[in-house]
Design goal:
Chain lengths: ~350, ~325, ~350, ~500
């Protein structure tokens, strides 16, 4: 009896399904190619497919955190995060290179570049927030503006060139430090997740965001500034995109306006959904989104490892996504339960 | 220019300027930016041209729209760097009906009627691929490895892009002549550094003994270099892995000078002057060749790269 | 007295209002274009007609998107569906020697089945439309690559004759540089697009299914409790949309006559933004296909502005399009909130 | 099956996670009978109806209808309608974006040439509404009308469709006496035509006025079925509550007139274009002011501009003699105001949040974002109010949307009491609340006043107002037309003032 309730508590937990899905993806690997889980040590850092997943998934995790809040508070998605990543990367490289196409030392202090990039990311987010919260434009349409303009702005900043920062320290954010067992991006994403978690749990912001997302009218009447909350989530999402942009830029020690964060917005939204969050706003599970992000990355890395051609990967991705979301579907579960229940009744009647 | 229509741009203002509409692909790479710059600096008012520039943001639909718009604006010449090779019949016929000559740049067009365009200017991607292959043959011979089993992988460009198709095909031609060459896997890195790096990481985990990496553009080669280093291996002339790349942008010279990259096959983006030459010929009523290759070279670490890079425009 | 005031208010009420703003802004914009680029011939009828010719496919797709958005859903797979439709057409006709008519029927059937599948996931398994169609988007794009990684040109004669058949409008003739008289012309795709628009308009306004779409979008729970079959309504909406997406793809293919992997990337965003500009709400329950037509035309006009301008760098093009889009969206939102205040 | 029976439900069981909503419930509906379904909040009335009409599935049991050989199971309201059951659910369920006419006829639109005949539909709608004395434009979207009008529209729809069975789940909760009377006339007409009507209400008078039979539920179990005429009121209440019930007529301490005339809130020519004409109103400390008027007379609007829920565009507001500019509910709240909105579903509950979160959210917002209440504190408060207001919920973490209508209302009330306001606006606080609790709430209001707090009390029930209010403001067509002092208050005087005969 007690066991059953424990099982039920575990299976009923909101993170259960997302975790199961991640486990299934990993398990499939174990069967197909056991060396997926082989981890060796190179230069004092761990090395292997699993580490790749953790490493490459970092930007997605960071974006998913911001996206979760946006989805929760405004019942809409921010499709401009990929473009904002490019903008942040561009401004950072522009400042550090002083306008040159390629430099071997910083033209300006590193901190300056990073701070301005993050501020600009937040400003882009704030612009989205202004459109959504103040002008009441539907989120997807509001963010369509920066989605369209973002890469243009990034190109404008870098004058259409890929700007290289060939300074070893610049690669640290997206690389690894010997002595640190895991790549740096993982720690960056960890920091973002912890920061967001503390912000949401130590203050009542999390509650406000959910309330506004579920019923903005009622929230206003209980004294929550709905539009301010929505605005803040977008600004925060922009900030997250800025951080992700810096990591992505550091990986290639350059700003590639066309390709930094390309199509990342879709994966970020997908991560939120795979984490068991409703895109209709309201209740959110931050950890679910994080797990969702790793699930997507695990899938991508797996498919690469299996040698699936990159332009056919989407087919497999689609199939896995459909299976995962179907598994999480309330309706399907109900249907199974009913089938199962009737069977049980029949059995008991026989007995 | 001849006229007939009151709305034509050629009639208004400086009627002695030749109006050229240039439908560019976009600004997706440094190569492309250099290509655009070459056109903008060639077709200036001082040189007797008026350039109407259109950027298609990598979308064919947009280019078709732009060409239709050029026709309505009554330009004298239309230059197109097609996003893709296919699907131009209808709109080119519209241009033909209006009597506007069309010149292609960079990529070719697959049309049933060759008279729909005047000529094509661009690099020879197949030759680039072959050049890369032949360089490798020589290089291996030099190192005395010509008899050995050589394992290689390819980071392909965006599948379907002319550069990808041509370079893959060209290299495959050379590959077929060398029985000891063993192509382990081809995978697309979509012409980007980040993807190139990701794919290379995956290759390195799968195969322990990669000798050669063919990167179908420089950016992917940079990604591959990082991945190789992260895996604790070395590359370049003194390293475990030989890397051949294409395009030869300035950053590639930096990589070769740094000793990370072995060889870069040039893909020349400076088409503007060549197109201007052709237009002058057409204005003079002369015939022009249908296919016009621009000159392209190959660079490797045996050359005096420091000097060469100073002369490079892109 | 109160009543009179109410009567006047009702003119501004309802879905018609945003549509009116959209149309008015379109006209203003077009006139500005004519004045700005008078010397370049912006005012030529063919310039306007080209908007329709180049966007015939998009018009049909936006109509389908409008239907979906009215139910409160979204479909971001349409761009990929267009790609796969074009690829299938090209591949069947060029590689497999299938005739143009059977090939067309097959792709329409494909769209139907694709829509059915997406609709099933959305309405019966209650999976969020964005995610379902995101998966659909991935799937269709990947499928395109699986069919062929080549660029395939369509050379099928019957197909090309459809694509190139000019319907000449014997008005506003002018003489071209060869001394021939040129009349404005349209292609059959424009006629098909308009037919589709009219049919969808009538369906939305005059059939039970059409009204159910609005009811479901307005409040799904209420629609259910009022005795509508919400699931079936949504399912049919996605099936219809799938069909329209493939038909749109067919028209798109008439314009480009080719199939390749990268085709029609981002077309879904064009369709969504066109519908929104035309007054359709992403939240559901409000929308009009003719609004979406004007949405398409407005986006087309913005692009035409930029080609006529003709000196912008690549990045300025993106920024300019976005700026005009922002200007338009913000203006619309201001008008809408003014109306809200007056209420 | 007896031959005059149209519907029987036998042994119906229905569980929600953690709640046994219905257990072995039987129900019989006869031809041409009006059958009241009674019970406290959360007794399972709405659930029984939802089970019957296919909104919710049930585990075991049997439903039979006249004319059908075998047991039926409705999978959706659509199927129920096909069986001849038409329903008005407790929460108004209309499509806000569609016109009134469409809401009336959707799914059964008049056709012409194969398409919908809009002209006929609008004409029919107009006629149907006029038969109920509702004078609104059927072409306008439903969202333009107040809850009460919407409720009338929903009723009109159900009545117009009713074939064999008509179900009305608390249709009268937001209607005034006049409207209720109209509804009853209609019900009687249908009764004569042989339609069986299930009627849910918490108003005992209404039960005794129209119904023939009563079925009482308690805690999801059937208490019994009685003929209305043979069941005295007090006995009915006792059956519903499971215990005896002291008479609630006199709860207002007679003669304790409020002598303190300290003004807490004063509105001077406050108004908002299009909704409420400028009015002045004084609210003293420790006073309960009632707002009365016909449907749509602007009672809610009057209150909303004080709270800043709607921004006033003329006039001034003074709190404690200090002139204030309240631009948002938050500012009003910080000045010690509270507002329990009329439309519970749209403006009250935050559906997916738990009972606990719904209760503490206002106090949390008042304290500020960075002063998060500890979980322990939150739980203590929640438990206190669940106990105090007898909120029926599986536990404090249950999402509020899973509570019965009346219990949701109690949660919202708890939310505001928790903020310890000086001035509270209660817009229809007893809507959908059972007799027992209703008395509790009325007592609570008086207790608040005793503590020196001021209350604006809006209710469509005049008796309730008489019991609680010290003073009443009368509204007509968005205009305050008068005030009635304590000693003038009587049913008659109020009716007169509302009707506007001699004023
Ligand atoms: N969707 C649901 N999920 C879980 N529990 C529910 C749900 N709907 C109702 N309940 C529970 O079932 C019980 C019966 O609720 P029901 O709505 O039938 O009460 P009711 O008699 O209509 O009360 P009221 O007079 O307040 O409307 C309540 O305890 C309620 O909490
Ligand atoms: N009979 C009616 N005809 C037209 N509009 C009405 C009618 N009744 C109400 N309304 C609308 O409702 C608004 C006022 O409703 P409000 O909610 O303030 O009324 P109320 O006095 O609070 O009554 P209740 O709360 O019982 O609905 C008016 O502005 C009007 O638009
Ligand atoms: Mg109920
Ligand atoms: Mg009211």
């Amino acid at each position: 009896m007690k066991d059953k309730s424990l099982v039920r508590r575990i299976t009923g937990h909101r993170l259960f399904m997302p975790l199961v899905c991640l486990a299934i993806v990993l398990l499939a690997n174990l069967l197909r190619q056991p060396d997926f889980f082989k981890i060796t040590v190179k230069d004092g850092t761990l090395y292997g497919y699993v580490i790749d997943v953790i490493n490459r998934g970092s930007e997605l995790v960071i974006l998913a955190v911001g996206m979760t809040l946006v989805v929760s508070s405004s019942a809409g998605t921010d499709i401009s995060v990929g473009a904002i990543m490019a903008v942040a990367a561009a401004i950072c490289c522009f400042i550090l290179s002083g306008g040159q196409v390629s430099v071997n030392e910083y033209a300006n202090p590193y901190v300056l570049g990073v701070v301005i990039a993050l501020v600009l990311g937040a400003i882009c987010g704030a612009w989205n927030g202004f459109l959504v919260a103040k002008l009441r434009i539907q989120p997807m349409v509001a963010t369509l503006i920066l989605f369209t303009a973002g890469r243009g702005i990034a190109q404008l900043i870098t004058n259409g060139q890929i700007t290289y920062i060939r300074v070893p320290e610049y690669k640290v954010l997206g690389g690894s430090i010997s002595g640190l067992p895991l790549p740096v991006p993982f720690f960056v994403s960890l920091a973002v997740v912890i920061l967001a978690y503390i912000l949401l749990k130590r203050t009542s912001l999390g509650l406000y965001i959910e309330a506004v997302g579920i019923n903005p009218k009622a929230s206003r009447l209980v004294g929550i500034k709905s539009s301010l909350i929505i605005f803040l989530t977008y600004a925060f999402c922009g900030l997250c995109a800025g951080i992700a942009g810096l990591v992505a830029s550091s990986r290639i020690y350059s700003a590639d306006a066309n390709n930094v964060g390309l199509n990342m917005e879709l994966d970020a939204i997908l991560a939120v959904a795979l984490g068991g969050n409703s895109l209709g706003g309201g209740k959110f599970f931050l950890m679910g989104s994080v797990i969702g992000a790793y699930t997507i990355q695990a899938l991508t890395t797996t498919l690469y490892a299996m040698g699936v051609s990159a332009d056919q990967i989407p087919v497999y991705k689609a199939i896995v996504v459909v299976i995962i979301v179907s598994l999480q579907s309330e309706e399907l579960r109900k249907w199974f339960k009913k089938k199962f229940a009737t069977k049980k009744v029949v059995e008991s009647e026989v007995a | 220019a001849d006229n007939g229509d009151s709305g034509d741009a050629s009639d208004s203002g400086d009627s002695d300027l030749i109006t050229v509409g240039y439908a560019q692909v976009g600004a997706e790479s440094d190569w492309r930016t250099a290509n655009t710059e070459s056109f903008k600096s060639t077709f200036t008012k001082e040189n007797g041209y008026e350039l109407i520039f259109d950027d298609a943001q990598q979308k064919q639909e947009n280019q078709i729209k732009a060409i239709r718009s050029f026709i309505q604006q009554g330009v004298d010449y239309i230059v197109v760097a097609p996003v893709v090779e296919t699907g131009w019949e209808t709109v080119l016929e519209e241009a033909k009906a209006e009597g506007i000559p069309v010149i292609l740049s960079d990529r070719q067009m697959d049309v049933s009627d060759e008279s729909l365009y005047e000529c094509w200017v661009g690099g020879n991607f197949i030759k680039e691929g072959e050049d890369g292959g032949h360089w490798l043959e020589d290089y291996l011979k030099e190192k005395g490895m010509d008899g050995e089993e050589i394992n290689m992988v390819t980071l392909q460009g965006t599948i379907g892009a002319s550069a990808q198709v041509g370079r893959t095909e060209g290299f495959a031609n050379v590959l077929a002549e060398n029985d000891n060459w063993n192509m382990l896997e081809l995978q697309t890195g979509e012409f980007t550094q980040a993807k190139g790096q990701e794919v290379m990481e995956s290759f390195l985990k799968k195969y322990d003994d990669i000798d050669v990496v063919i990167a179908e553009n420089d950016n992917m080669a940079f990604g591959a270099i990082d991945a190789i280093k992260a895996a604790g291996k070395t590359c370049g002339p003194d390293g475990d892995i030989t890397i051949i790349s294409f395009d030869a942008v300035k950053a590639a010279f930096d990589a070769m000078i740094a000793g990370d990259l072995n060889c870069a096959v040039e893909c020349n983006p400076l088409h503007g002057p060549r197109v201007a030459e052709i237009i002058q010929k057409l204005e003079a009523g002369e015939e022009v060749d249908k296919i016009q290759y621009v000159d392209e070279e190959l660079f490797d670490t045996s050359m005096d790269l420091e000097e060469i890079v100073k002369t490079r425009a892109y | 007295m109160m009543n009179k005031k109410k009567g006047r208010k009702s003119i501004l009420e309802g879905t018609g209002f945003l549509l009116m703003i959209t149309i008015a802004l379109f006209i203003v914009m077009y006139v500005i274009g004519c004045l700005l680029f008078a010397d370049k011939g912006f005012a030529k009828p063919q310039v306007f007609i080209n908007l329709l010719i180049s966007n015939a496919g998009l018009i049909v797709i936006a109509a389908g998107m409008t239907v979906i958005m009215i139910t409160g859903g979204i479909d971001i797979s349409v761009g990929s569906v267009v790609a796969v439709v074009c690829m299938m057409l090209a591949w069947m006709m060029e590689r497999k020697d299938v005739g143009a008519i059977p090939a067309t029927l097959i792709v329409l059937g494909f769209g139907l089945v694709f829509g059915l599948f997406q609709g099933f996931l959305v309405s019966y398994l209650k999976i969020q439309p964005f995610i379902v169609t995101l998966a659909g988007m991935f799937f269709a794009r990947g499928l395109t690559a699986m069919i062929s990684q080549d660029m395939i040109s369509i050379k099928n004669e019957m197909f090309l004759s459809w694509a190139k058949y000019k319907i000449v409008i014997p008005l506003f003739g002018r003489v071209n540089r060869r001394g021939e008289v040129m009349y404005p012309y349209i292609y059959p795709s424009v006629v098909i697009a308009f037919l589709v628009l009219v049919i969808i308009f009538l369906m939305l306004k005059y059939t039970k299914f059409g009204r159910s779409l609005y009811a479901v979008g307005g409040n799904e729970q209420s629609a259910l409790m009022m005795g509508l079959n919400v699931r079936r309504t949504k399912l049919y909406a996605y099936v219809l949309n799938g069909l329209l997406a493939s038909l749109g793809g067919f028209l798109f293919c008439l314009n480009t006559c080719a199939g390749f992997v990268e085709q029609a990337k981002g077309l879904e965003m064009d369709a969504i933004s066109s519908a929104v500009i035309g007054g359709t709400l992403l939240t559901g329950g409000v929308g009009n296909v003719f609004g979406s037509l004007f949405g398409v035309l407005i986006k087309g006009t913005i692009e035409t502005f930029i080609t006529f301008q003709g000196t912008l760098s690549s990045w300025w093009v993106r920024i300019a399009i976005a700026a005009l889009l922002a200007f338009f969206i913000i203006l619309q939102s201001i008008f809408a909130s003014l109306k809200e205040k007056r209420k | 099956m007896e031959n005059n029976v149209v519907l029987t439900m036998r042994n119906i069981n229905k569980n929600f996670p953690g709640v046994r909503a219905l257990s072995k419930v039987d129900f019989t509906l006869r031809k041409g009978e009006i059958h009241a379904l009674m019970g406290e909040n959360g007794a399972g009335k709405s659930t029984l109806i939802k089970v019957l009409t296919g909104v919710e599935e049930f585990e075991t049991g049997e439903i039979r209808m006249a004319g059908c050989e075998c047991a039926i199971v409705n999978k959706s309201p659509e199927e129920a309608q096909k069986c001849g059951i038409s329903t008005v659910y407790q929460e108004v369920n209309l499509c806000p974006n569609l016109s009134v006419a469409e809401n009336l006829y959707i799914g059964r639109e008049p056709k012409k040439f194969g398409g919908i005949d809009w002209k006929t539909m609008n004409k029919n709608a107009k006629a149907l509404l006029e038969s109920l004395d509702i004078d609104i434009d059927p072409k306008k979207a439903v969202e333009n009308y107040s809850v009460a009008i919407q409720q009338m529209v929903a009723i009109a729809r159900a009545v117009d469709m009713s074939a064999a069975v008509l179900i009305l789940d608390e249709p009268t909760s937001s209607l005034d006496d006049g409207e209720v009377e109209k509804l009853f006339t209609l019900m009687r007409k249908l009764q004569k035509q042989g339609v069986g009507i299930i009627f849910v209400t918490h108003f005992l008078e209404q039960v005794y006025e129209v119904t023939d039979r009563i079925t009482v539920l308690r805690n999801g179990e059937l208490v019994g079925e009685y003929e209305t005429a043979k069941l005295p009121r007090l006995e009915l209440v006792a059956k519903m509550m499971g215990k005896d019930f002291d008479d609630l007529a006199k709860i207002k301490p007679e003669g304790v007139s409020k002598t303190k005339a300290e003004v807490l809130i004063e509105a001077k020519e406050l108004g908002r274009r299009g909704t409420i004409k400028p009015y002045s109103l004084q609210i003293n400390k420790g006073e309960v002011i009632g707002l009365t008027g016909l449907l749509g007379s602007g009672r809610s609007e009057l209150a909303r501009v004080i709270y800043g829920a709607d921004k006033p565009d003329t006039g001034e507001l003074f709190v404690n003699d200090e002139k204030v500019h309240i631009k948002s509910p938050r500012e009003a709240m910080m000045r010690g105001m509270a507002y329990l909105p009329e439309d519970r579903k749209a403006e009250g509950i935050i559906a997916d949040l738990s009972v606990r979160e719904n209760i503490i959210i206002a106090l949390q917002a008042k304290r500020g974002m960075f002063k998060r209440m500890s979980t322990k504190e939150q739980e203590e408060f929640t438990d206190k109010y669940i106990e105090l207001l007898q909120i029926k919920t599986a536990n404090r973490e249950t999402p509020i949307k899973q509570l019965s209508g009346g219990n949701q209302q109690k949660v919202i009330l708890a939310r505001w009491l928790l903020t310890n306001p000086d001035f509270i606006i209660l817009d229809e606080p007893t809507r959908g609340i059972d007799v027992g609790t209703k008395t509790e709430i009325q007592k609570l209001v008086l207790q608040l006043a005793d503590e020196g707090k001021s209350v604006i009390f809006i209710s469509s029930e005049i008796e309730e107002m008489l019991r609680t209010c010290n003073r009443m403001a009368v509204l007509r067509d968005g205009q305050k037309v008068g005030e009635l002092e304590e000693d003038e208050l009587s049913q008659e005087a109020i009716m007169k003032a509302i009707a506007g005969g001699d004023r």
